[in-house]
Please model this.
Amino acid sequence: MKASQRIETLLGGGDDGWGVFLKARRMIADGTPVTELTIGEHDIRTAAPILQDMHRAAMGGHTGYAAVPGTDSLRDTVAARVQSATGVPTSRANVMITPGGQAALFAAHMAVIDPGDTALYIDPYYATYPGTLRGASARPVAIKARAEDAFQPRAEAIAAVAPGAKSLLVNSPNNPTGVVYSAATMDGIAQVAREHDLWIISDEVYDSQIWEGSHISPRALPGMVERTLVVGSMSKSHAMTGSRIGWVVGPEAIIAHLTNLATHTTYGVPGFIQDAAEFALGLGADFEAEVAEPFRRRRALAQNLLATQNTVGLIPSAGAMYLMLDIRSTGLSGEDFALALLDAHHIAVMPGESFGAAAAGHLRVAMTIDDDRFIDALRTLCSFAAQHAA
Model:
């Protein structure tokens, strides 16, 4: 028997960019210590008060089927958070709770894509984006942002491939680059969307990690509220990666359709996890800033270190928990450099090529270990690069 073409072609013939990460995990399983700077996993665990509230909710009996679009109180809380941040009127009818941001990305595309439709996305991109689009039976088309533009996507590049497309997936603050899209960039994206009748699916899971400038949601721009679906998550803002809870915010009619989709797929999110998410959001912006602070601090440490050498370049990072490093001066691809660094020094980073052709010759470094080990690893990486450049 043969699997479906959708499943067989999900990765487009590749490994979804996880080769170096998987090799590092095999080394660890074999007993070799590895310094991991690969995935966006906090070096702190979910805060005890959140877990205690989750336990309270579970022991209190909220363990049966929960409302499929989410509990009314959590949807109200998410709506209030989004409205406060953007100024756009938002109610529970605009919110559906999902099992994490990844499920929200898939659901959002299922809501607006028909089989064979062209779905656009920006390169560099989070590694799951192309597979998510293929899983929704779309035809993925990447739009290159350029390192020379600090990976800010150009409106004219989007417009060149927009005719006939159905959607555009954007991500700011951006994974993998750490770039926060400027007001000019967002205005350009919105203009192209209006002119070419595109849905915008905006992945905003890093909106609480802004180091410079400000986060702009395309949903808040003129003429965009009815053509934008926003993906959010508790994973990054509250260190709740394993709890798998996120949301889609969008027009009321689309949320109603997504509720039907969830009824036939996930059947919602456990109630005790939703209660804990509501409690966590109630801790406010100060708590989110506390979760984000280690990455702000490590970014500053990295900037100071990288300023002392001229082999490894730093793409201007204004948000998220990653740095994008330019190692083209070594003459190595990002993948070759990452594999060599792993073999020589047992330091694991993600090759830029894992995130698209535009990031070739770059590395993504996750700032997810304690300060001293992070700087030691970065210092070793720079020394290793200098040896190859020489």
Q: What stands out?
A: The radius of gyration is 21 Å.
